[in-house]
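Revision sheet: structure tokens.
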Amino acid sequence: MAAKNISNMVCKQKRPVKVMQFGEGNFLRGFADEMIDVSNEKGITDMSIVIVKPRKGTLKEAFRQQDCDYTVSLRGLMNNEPTKRERIITSVTETISCYDDYDKYMEYAVSDDLRFVISNTTEAGIVYDGTDTPDMKPQKSFPGKVTALLYARYKHFEGDRSKGLIFLPVELIDNNADVLKEIVLRHAAEWKLRDGFITWIKEACVFSNTLVDRIISGYSADDEEELYKRKGYEDKLLVAGELFGLWVIAQDERITAELPLDKAEQPVLFVQDIKPYKTRKVRILNGAHTSFVLWAYLKGHDYVLEAMDDEEIREFVEGMLRDEVIDTIDLDKDELNKFADDVITRFRNPFIKHALSSIALNSVSKWKTRCLPTLLDYFKMKGKLPDRLTKSLAALLLYYRGSVNAEGDYVGTRIKDGKACEYKINDDPTIIDFLKDCSGLSDDEYIDRMLDAEKFFGMKLSDIEGLADKVKADYAVLAGLRN
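Predicted:
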């Protein structure tokens, strides 16, 4: 029997296109588009989205075949029970390429209904490109495209300040909207555009910094087949991710009035300052990952869920978050404990197979960014070293303790199922070369060299009172994992 068309499974309402979205990838479709879809259904918002492919390349034919409808499957633990939440997303009205459909793209740019621009052009997307010019159709860089789009809108509406746009970039860089605005203003000045345009950008448009959090894991052929068996339709645009989601947006009354997703019970926070929430995510979520994965891997585990089933590791993570991390963050403690609970639940998600070896990549810089600030703040506040974070540093040094194999790779060893197994250590070449030079040293000499490596940690960790002795003691205990 032929599969049903997904678009026949829902009643799609015609809504004004108020959102232009740069980026057709899975993340935004399983995040912002899903939230807007729920909000539309609840009558809180009434808007649809046009997705713009910001780079050259052919759009998936499935967007046309499925009328831009697709399934989002969010999966995780709810009340300790495996839970799936599915919905067919109908909030996207059209998907176009700003290269192949330039005229249509510019029609949307000057539409009376357009109000928001959401983007996910990757961390490399919000960059200045001095080769962009105002006559390109379109410009190469994303900020160049934005500048040209806004200038077309400024001219079309003759500087009407009510026709400014609200930008909500989700690219994973600090102060994402501020950086985008700065580059747009630079282009506007260098291109010597019409008088008043720069003032219009500053006063009529809103650039709001954001922080996003949801794992979008993609889907497998098995997921697609299982959906077909249950629902009777194929979906080549299926998006799978975790139940947890969080969108922190720098508050502006124009956003809270026109995009009140929080009133639709969506996980959106409007805040005055995003920085504490960035600190919360880095220290609790990312810091927890970095603190236990290397030790768990050396213990013979391969995946996060498997590691969290190890009572010793789970207690280590929970204790570190409760006793060492939360006190160093300037937010409500109940809120922080709730976030920590959510993190533990996310680590135990039975639907996500997150390899420890993947998280272990570039662990030196990750530990410096995610764990060291907490250790330093804890030491300053308490006058003593945090036991678990110090142990995580010892695990880092043990994981990186290796040698060069016959193929010329720098490798370590661990015990897996009673056998010694070799693993490749992946990090910046400068770090690997440094580690190779340490291969002939004793363990204590190696630890001293690493703790003195200011170029890797931004400071000499050996200057922290008592740290070297404690790391060496923890290292000696953990080294038993290799015997």
